[in-house]
Amino acid sequence: MISSGAIPEWLQASEVIRLEAFLAGFVLIGVLERLLPNRTHQWRGRATGNIGLQLVNALVQLAMLLAAPLTLSAVALIALFSQFGLLNHLQMGLWTKIVIAWLVLDLASYWWHRAWHGVPLLWRFHQIHHLDPALDVLTTFRTHPVETVLTILFKGCIVYLLGVPLLGVILYEVVVAVMALWIHGNVRIRPGADRFLALLLITPGLHRIHHGALESEYSRNFGLVLSLWDRIFGTYRASHPATASGPGITSPDTAAAMTLPGMLWLPFRKTA
To answer: N or C: which end of the chain has fewer CB within 10 A?
Structure first.
């Protein structure tokens, strides 16, 4: 049992673990992109804007941690000590609770992602991610801060209402951080291996379809970890190199979304 006095230490530890996993994943995928590239392109012209946006998001998350504190780990601890949330009132083992929480969080993330595509106001922010003219580990960084904040709030509500165990939150965030880097990675994988992994997981091949230039592509494969939800709800499209268009949607705003100020301001422009 975690004492209330240990909350700051647990919050600090969980954030350090998530950051270390993210950095390790970034380095690993970055190296694989150099050794086994799927497509030839350069970071030049994209790195400054994409990394700058990631730094802005990191500052926003740090502010939320210091001010509230508002992170998924903090919400999990609040639910635990207040004994709020469904799982805190069910008599079952810790790992059973974690599996249930994982499935619910992954399902919620699937529908949350679909909302960012389906609701015009939300798409104004999410399109920043899809305007990247290349697809690699740097694309992971292209998330508008408004989307980052709303996603933390949305997932925080799920964690609180469900009473997700702290260990479950930490494991979920580590896996999501690494998976987000992996599925965006410009890494060449044998088609057979990609199809095998796609039986359970979202793969780089599946996510390349989602980053295609055509609506028939970017309206498919919304999952982040499990491919199950796309299969159940009819948005699954198998990856095939010959059928996927180039990455990045076609838009007059592509040039404006290549700089950090452009990416931050684009959703608020009347023409966006």
So the answer is: N
Tell me how far CA of residue 101 lies from CA of 67, 159, 169, 170, in angstroms: 26, 8, 9, 12
Q: What is the pLDDT of residue 1?
A: 47
Q: Which residues pair with 226 in a beta bridge?
A: 201
Q: Mind listing the pLDDT tens digit for each residue in 190-225?
A: 989 999 999 999 999 999 999 998 888 999 999 999
Q: How far is CA 38 from the centre of its chain?
A: 21
- CA dist 50 and 139 (Å) reads 7
Instruction: Tell me what pLDDT residue 69 has.
Output: 73
Structure tokens at 205: 């091949």
Residues of the chain with pLDDT under 50: 1, 4, 243, 272
pTM to 2 decimals? 0.91
Per-residue DSSP letter, 237: -
CB 203 within 8 A of CB 239: yes
Nearest to 180 by CA among 42, 48, 25, 17: 25
Residues 6 or more apart whose CB falls under 8 angstroms from that of 141 comprise 50, 51, 53, 54, 57
Instruction: Give dist(CA 158, CA 245) in Å, integer.
Output: 35
At 163-192, the pLDDT tens digits run 999 999 999 999 999 999 999 999 999 989
Which amino acid makes up residue 138? L
Q: Beta partners for 201? A: 226
Per-position DSSP letters for 177-234, written without gaps between them: HHHHHHHH--B---HHHHHHHTTTB--HHHHHHHTBSSHHHHTS---SSBSHHHHHTT
CB-based burial, 131-164: b 16+ in 10 Å, e otherwise: bbbbbbbbbbbbbbbbbbbbebeebbebbbebbb
